[in-house]
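pinging the channel bc i need a second pair of eyes. not urgent but kinda urgent?? the chain im working w is below, pasted from the shared doc
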Amino acid sequence: MFPIHDDNPVRITPYVTYTLVGLCVVVFLWQMGQGPQGQQAIAYGLGLVPAVFFGDRTLPPELVMVPTSLTLVTSMFLHGGFMHLLGNMLYLWIFGNNIEDAMGHGRFIVFYLLCGTAAALAQGLPNPDSVIPMIGASGAISGVLGGYLLLYPCLLYTSPS
């Protein structure tokens, strides 16, 4: 079962949600336009590589695109394939507007980025020697879904008939 919308009205236009979806789509199209080798270079250069982030390894100079600390953010805008992008953006589109409405634009972007950062650290810390790049907005969107669950718990419960 895949949701296509929710029934919670919003009072504001969710500009941050729209912008995040737009950025992820534009970055994905840019990624796909680079060919297989370019896509791999982007994943290593802009994705979060735990062994690099936690200091055990360094990337070859030709793969370094941003300072290592910024990969906590840049990794949230990359995706591994069309279905990865579609799933993340669907859930952000449906639930992000309500969280943005409840928090306001500024607090929502901070919340989104903090959730994504916390998720990346939680995934990277158990295996800090991993050289596999972590990419995607799934951690940030999981935070959005958690926020939705806390704000609207009665909408997720269906009483037995």
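so The first helix runs from residue 15 to 32. and The mean pLDDT is 93. — does that match what u expected or am i reading it wrong
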